[in-house]
Design goal:
It is a single chain. The chain has 33 residues and is an all-alpha fold. The protein starts with a helix and ends with a helix. The model has no long low-confidence stretch (mean pLDDT 85).
Length: 33
């Protein structure tokens, strides 16, 4: 079992999810009311 590969995959998925959330929040904030 390679724990490093699993941890790297988890970090990549988490970073992608946070990136998507950040883009969505940024888009909502930048939209005119």
């Amino acid at each position: 079992m390679k724990l490093k590969s699993h941890s790297n995959i988890d970090i990549t998925i988490i970073s992608l999810l946070f990136g998507i959330l950040y883009i969505i929040v940024f888009d909502i904030i930048m939209r005119p009311l």
